[in-house]
Amino acid sequence: MNxxxxxxRALTADDLPAGLMAxxxxxxxxxxxxxxxxxxxVLGCVRILSEIVGxxxxxxxxxxxxxxxxxxxxxxxxxxxxxxxxxxxxSDQRITMMVDCLLHGEAFGRVLRARGVPKEVHRLDPSAxxxxxxxxxxxxxxxxxxxxxxxxxxxxRDVIHVQTPGSLLDKPLxxxxxARDAIGLDIAMQxxxxxxxxxxxxxxxxxxxxxxxxxxxxKEIHAAWxxxxxxxxxxxxxxxxxxxxxxxxxxxxxxADFLQLRKHAAAEINRAFKVxxxxxxxxxxxxxxxxxxxxxxxxxTALVPWLDTWQAAYSRCLLTPAERATHFLEFKVDALARxxxxxxYAAYRQACGGSWMTPDEIRKLDNLPPxxxxxxxxxxxxxxxxxxxxxxxxxxxNTSQSAEGR
Length: 406
Prior knowledge:
single chain, alpha+beta, 3-stranded antiparallel beta sheet, 11 strands
């Protein structure tokens, strides 16, 4: 009979106090994956990026012989993308793993197979995974510490490994480490603001009493003043004795610029995560036009690199080498690009109506299948194909009129 009440398991970073493993910033605040979320700016950036990536649907497409790209609903990977395991939705898992990427620099998902076919994907704790690079083949492997038992080693084909764009396999770029000083400053200023206003704000002045006032009398004056003008009585008219004097305290330059300093710290963090300030709650200079443009820039410069990284990680594990020649995975960003949808459709109309792109070529840009007759240029009234060299004038050299002018 085993009387020992504890189980042996591997020690992870989550078992240690947050401040012990967190390097201190220049502001004296320990910043790591747990403490960084105490910064409202970091929390906003993480929520924006993770929730958007999680909400975007990702589909499996099959390449056709004529360049068409059709959705393959029957592929095994499509079911995993929608429901990676019986108790987790695909969107929920991507949100959680994206949070891991933003806080730890990388995220891991273990692929479970049946007869070589992927069936389920389970998230792995980033702090429990160690990436090993083989010196001879340069192939990565993943050592995973388990809660019970010895660590296990997984091959790279069985681990969906998503990293911050630009990372090395065994050296991920950790954004919170690179922006540690800005995050620490934001947390320190938030704490200072909380302490300053927890007792009703900074003292607005000093009450001077005669130098030889006994300590007991000073305490009585302090208690009477707090009772008359403290708490909910702030702002009431004060009455003092002739022997006392009131001196107002003005704000220093640092205190007057406190709000600007907080905005500067928040801007530094937003810059590190490549999130426009207007999308993270700073609407001082927001107008309709620049919000639309910033949303497009955010999609192109911040989200697209992340989506490309996710697509590559999925393809490595969910598609066989032979299938990668005929299939690919892609996020559908139409909902996110809805602000520019009208401009994009207007450009499509110009391209198709200008007779330099066929309807099928335009449909291919949006991963839509070809249609009957879509391989022919759409000609406007009185317009001739580009390969038709026949003059359109009559015997007298006059050009023919369009249908609208007849």
